Amino acid sequence: MKINLPFNYQLRLYGSKVEQRVGICSQHIDRTDEHCLLWDFDNVESESDLIVTLLRLQTKYHLPNIYVIESSLDKLHAYCFKGCSFREVIHILSDTPQIDMKYLRLGMARGYYTLRVTPREGDSFRLITTLASFIKETITPMDLTVNNYITTNLGGSNNA
Question: How far from chain centre, in Å, is Cα 9?
Fold first, then answer.
């Protein structure tokens, strides 16, 4: 629907299907200046290349375990429960060539990152691998905030 307004403005209304999602947030529930690392990868061409990248980051930044999860077809998430400043999180995520760029930019703008933890219709989450480390985790999943949100992204590409 389009409504013409004075002074060369228009009001446009669009409708689209939306879905309710639940997401885990990078921000610590009590210490809001502390975050964990959450990666989002869409249209993954090579799981092995991605794992090599994450192993490189794990060594370079002295990270604890990294959990790589398939969230839907060709879409992976990775979780690392190390407490970091938001600046450190941005630095490490930006050092990940395969990261979804819209996800990276949106998190930078919001001040935290969110990954959905509810599967899309017909999908289920599956642990791909755990990249083990001798470094101790400093945050647990129970330390993180949970967000309920509505999205129109029903599984399309988020690459930019």
Answer: 36
The C-alpha atoms of residue 120 and residue 125 are separated, in whole angstroms, by 9
Tell me the DSSP string of 24-89: EEEEESS-TT-EEEEEEE-S-S-HHHHHHHHHHHHHHTT---EEEEEEETTEEEEEEEEEE-HHHH
Q: Are the C-beta atoms of 65 and 80 separated by less than 8 Å?
A: yes
Q: What is the pLDDT of residues 61-92, one digit of tens each?
A: 999 999 999 988 888 999 999 999 999 999 99
pLDDT exceeding 90 applies to what percent of the chain? Answer: 60
Quick check: 40 and 77 in contact, CB under 8 A? yes
Q: pLDDT, tens digit, for every residue of 13-28? A: 777 777 777 889 999 9
Q: pTM of the full predicted structure?
A: 0.82
Q: Nearest CA to 158 among 71, 89, 87, 88?
A: 71
Beta bridge partners of 40: 77
